[in-house]
Here is the input.
Amino acid sequence: MNPLELIAARDVPLGGPRSLTVRRTLPSRQRSLIGAWCFIDHFGPDRIREGMSFAPHPHTGLQTVSWLFSGEVQHRDSTGVEAVVRPGELNLMTAGRGVSHSEVSTPASDILHGVQLWVALPDDAREVAPGFDHHVPLPVTGAGWTVRVFLGSLVGDTSPVRTHTPLLGAEVLLAPHTTVRLDVDPHFEHGVLADAGSPIVEGTSVPNHHMAYLSPGRGAVTVAAGAHEARVLLLGGPPFGEAILMWWNFIGRSHEEIVQFRSEWHAQIVRDGSLVSHGQAINHGRFGVVAGEWRGPVPAPTLPNTRLVPRR
Ligand code: MN
Here is the structure.
């Protein structure tokens, strides 16, 4: 069996000066994808004064998964969905051909702590209509462990939320000195993100905020806690197999496509610049307009002078 590959996080400040700094383990120098998972941002526990405040911005070709350990985030999108993201609840937004949304942490909690994950849509699904799914998994418990399965199947539980490629997403909580052996699909590759307790994954200690990568071919993943309670996220899927191009908030397949998404977003900002929608979301353009949002849309950064190149 191949040894574990450890991926260290890099700090990425998001948004303005008062906004959040996240720890990004995907994409990394070593890897672009784990299954269809293509983006792993881990944040907190931070005091709410350094919370999340993302004004309306667009997405294409992906799904976003917000999963919190603590805190609360208000989500609004251009399909008209308003949702409060709470700990232990899956909120999955499908961008498909295009969506725009805003996210802001609410004052209802002191500490913001969780992850935002992106799922790349395969070529045959990346033009689907935007949508939103919410699911509260029932915790599955055993001797010293608790598992919440938000996507896919694990420990006998299966999430009802549909994905366009096979995926696994689960939170695993371990009491001190507990070991759990989780049966997994051997066709999947996996990432184990260490949130707390410096867990031991397949016999290797994984420092907090690092991710262990496990290649396909394993029928089980063993996670253990040492002297402290440990928490990990287990993410997996079969190798994606398509080269994708991630730039800013867009996923496409070619440089030209990204240029097109960017120019459509900017055309929409100009057209909708004075639009303040107090009521229904306005479903026009590729990205729509976020309802009930007073903050202006975020312009895309300048494109680099070189051509953007897809990665796999
Ligand atoms: Mn977003």
Q: What stands out?
A: Residues 123 and 299 are 26 Å apart (CA to CA).
